[in-house]
Sequence to fold (473 residues):
Amino acid sequence: MTTHLQSPQGPGAGRSERTTVLPPGGGQTAFYAKSNMVPLPVIDRGSGIYLWDEDDRRYIDVSSGPVVSSIGHGNARVADAMASQAKRLEYAFARLARNRVNIDYSERLARLAGPGFERVNLTSGGSEAVENAIKFLRQYAIATGKPSKRQIITCEPSYHGATIATLAMNGEVALAPFLDGFATTSHKVPAPLSYRVPDDHSIGSYARHCAAALDAKIAELGAENVLAFVIEPVGGLSTGCVVPPAEYIHAIREICTSRGVHLVFDEILCGMGRTGKFLAAHHWPEALPDIVTMAKGLASGYSPLGAMLAPADMVDELSELTGFEFQYSYNANPVSSAVGMAVLDEYEGLDLVARAVERGTQLRSGLEALQSSLPILGDIRGLGMLLAVELVADKKTKVSLPSDLLPADRIRIHGLRNGLMIYSRPTSGGKYGHWFIVSPPLTISEEECEDLLRRLGKTLSDLVAELRDMGTL
Fold:
């Protein structure tokens, strides 16, 4: 059932937006703030890069949801693999039994990840994968006689999950009141931002400053007390797809090695080929982390799936000492493992890692062309087909759009009106700027990229016109 509702707070105030009247229960939407100004279409079906709502309006999935749907929607081969596995064996609890598809999938994933990541621990998603990484390292520290190692260092800004433990690791300043006195937060060091660097720094010098800050924080806490440094090697929505300079990655690897601190790459969002390498870590082969976490693209939205990848020597040593016995009901699930195998088949058959480079280059070129003609596009950044566009009020001064104008919401609304579904939300209360992510399914064609760019150009032009009418520009 649909009805017309007004959005007086949003762009085009007074225009009607179609939305669904929630029945009893209301679904997930019932828990969202009623003040949310962005209409949420009820999606009925999907195919490739497209989604259709219940009114049969089509949208391009510009951001693969939250960078999940890497192989696109409606893939019959993956759906058939899921159904076939469910008919044969839908569930087997890992503490009581093994299942062949989980064994085969874990071995295949480890081969793609390469040396240093020979052991795979599956979870139901990214937050669980990050938690398992921390729990594994903590258990290893205790088992090897280093019980004081319990402190975790992360970056500000950053994002590592939505459980209580991973929320406490996030470099999200807006969460401070929620976490205060409720959870033990990680220690924060500055993220190596590339656009909003201090006036007395270049990108390179600021990256060195951020690496030095990590070294100083470890010294402050005492290396014997620090368990791990966890970082997104290529940022997600928290930083707007920041790509650190190679010297930063090499520096933090050297610091962690010399200090005896484990380095963890959170590749929940940037892994699975989206940056043009199977792991983002593979861009810096001489500075590999100790642990990698993955999710999102692993199952590409067809089933909940995450993974922690660890070196064989650590896992096998711990197995001899105490083992790592923490379990979830659905880890190593045979249906999710079968989906993971089918997704890897799609990656291989369609050469999606190479396509991430090819189509990512096309998208970046198109975005840079829009940047040259529109006054609100301050920065285009990212790697492969993981790109972000930062919105500004003034390109010369890099002044952000006012946070009270809710730029992230406005770009989403204008996108919906132009047939685009865009992933954008305020992070850190807009402290570090406002951006949206361009990361469509890796299966997108050259022609579909051009259509996306045309629609995005119209979307941004509509936003510029609105901001001018408001006197913001």
About this structure: The longest strand covers residues 386-394. The domain at 76-350 is CATH 3.40.640.10 (Aspartate Aminotransferase; domain 2).
